[in-house]
Design goal:
By secondary structure, the protein is of the alpha/beta class. It contains 5 helices and 7 strands. The two termini are 30 Å apart.
């Protein structure tokens, strides 16, 4: 694998929309149509128990959106294992994620060259997919919102004006 446009590129399985069940196809449609219209950005929750097709749906969405606009999707998760399963990065990652330090120490707005590099990496990103969102704290979500606002230079727009898909099983314990 290698880094492409600030994101991790690996051989991804190709999942087509017709391989998804009706509910997952609806999630696919909501997210993929949101990217095609800047005025139609959304915050989408895709919930379901293990084995219900959430990762397949993420793969289908990623394939569709990156086929239209390479590098337009950022895939993140709270842990390395969860990130690996979606071919993404942890949102804490400084190289491929959202540059959010672990724990409470060092969490502050980005500045100078670090901010400029982050904004350059975020330039093409129009959709953020967060898997295993249930493992995130409310503070983590606050910092994800803050970083997206900084990364897209849209401080007054929630999540920097991009579409965010949060996937997971709220019945799982964090």
């Amino acid at each position: 694998h290698n880094a492409v446009g600030g994101h991790i590129a690996r051989n991804r399985r190709v999942v087509l929309p017709d391989q998804l069940n009706v509910m997952k196809r609806l999630a696919f449609h909501v997210v993929t149509t949101a990217q095609s219209s800047p005025d139609n950005r959304r915050l989408v929750l895709m919930i379901g128990q293990a084995g219900t097709g959430k990762t397949w749906t993420i793969d289908a969405i990623t394939h569709c959106l990156n086929s239209r606009a390479p590098g337009s999707v950022m895939l993140v998760a709270p842990t390395g294992k969860a990130a690996l399963l979606i071919n993404g990065a942890t949102y804490q990652s400084w190289d491929h994620g959202l540059c959010i330090p672990c724990g409470n120490i060092g969490r502050q707005p980005l500045k100078g060259d670090t901010l400029a590099r982050f904004q350059e990496r975020m330039e093409r990103v129009e959709t953020l997919i967060i898997d295993e969102f249930r493992m995130m704290s409310m503070e983590d979500l606050f910092w994800i919102d803050s970083r997206l606002r900084q990364g897209k230079a849209r401080m007054d727009t929630p999540f920097g004006g991009i579409t965010v898909l949060m996937s997971g099983d709220p019945g799982q314990l964090p």
